[in-house]
Design goal:
8-stranded antiparallel beta sheet; single chain; two-stranded antiparallel ribbon
Length: 217
């Protein structure tokens, strides 16, 4: 298991880590618009591990048509945390995570504090931003991370990606987010924020789900 969390004042919003809240849709951060969706993307351990690996190597972003550049791991090792069983007993020792993983192109995997830039458009809407990884979770049946905006985006906020291998052997992916408009049109018309988020979610689904089919196919 590897678990890490990073919080830094350089992100441009206050509710760091709020995508972990179970009641995000009911009580989103002030002035923000929440969104969440889950998709079944297959079943079995192999599907879970393949999806988790793709997720941590930016597969959802790249597959949605966004270009990922300038990926920079946080300096120094990240504290991995400790795991506990149902009675509160530690089942894995705390350690320092020192092994940085890379994809076939030499791009670092997601890690707590990693910064990156994304470039592109979604349904004609700008999706450029500088982002920071807020937390990373790697467990036996759950893998994911969250990204927070640092600057350069039309919106400010956070989104999290989580792949879960459930007890019934199904593999599900859940994306949660909250956005607050920063650009003038996005501040004036919240519909643009919702439209942008819907388009991003659809892109992530196309990227990570072999079960995805376009309407009418």
């Amino acid at each position: 298991m590897r678990r890490g969390t990073f919080q830094d004042e350089t992100v441009d919003y206050a509710a760091v880590g709020a995508t972990q809240a179970n009641d995000l849709l009911q009580y989103p951060p002030e002035h923000s618009i929440p969104a969440a969706d889950s998709w079944r993307i297959g079943s079995g351990e192999e599907r879970f591990r393949t999806a988790g690996d793709a997720l941590l190597s930016w597969g959802a972003l790249k597959g949605a048509g966004l270009k990922v550049t300038d990926v920079r791991p946080a300096p120094g090792p990240a504290y991995s945390g400790v795991s506990f069983d149902g009675e509160g007993n530690p089942v894995a020792p705390s350690k320092l995570e020192s092994d940085q993983r890379y994809d076939a192109e030499g791009t670092p995997y997601a890690g707590p504090g990693t910064t990156l830039r994304v470039h592109g458009r979604v349904n004609g809407m700008r999706a450029d931003a500088e982002l920071r990884v807020i937390f990373v979770i790697e467990e036996a049946r759950r893998v994911g991370f969250a990204l927070g905006t640092v600057g350069g985006s039309m919106v400010s906020g956070e989104e999290s990606f989580m792949v879960e291998w459930r007890d019934n052997d199904e593999v599900w992916c859940t994306v949660k987010a909250f956005d607050r408009g920063v650009g003038l049109l996005y501040r004036m018309f919240k519909g643009f924020v919702r439209r942008r988020r819907r388009a991003l979610f659809a892109g992530y689904l196309r990227a990570i789900s072999p079960l995805f089919a376009t309407p009418g196919s």
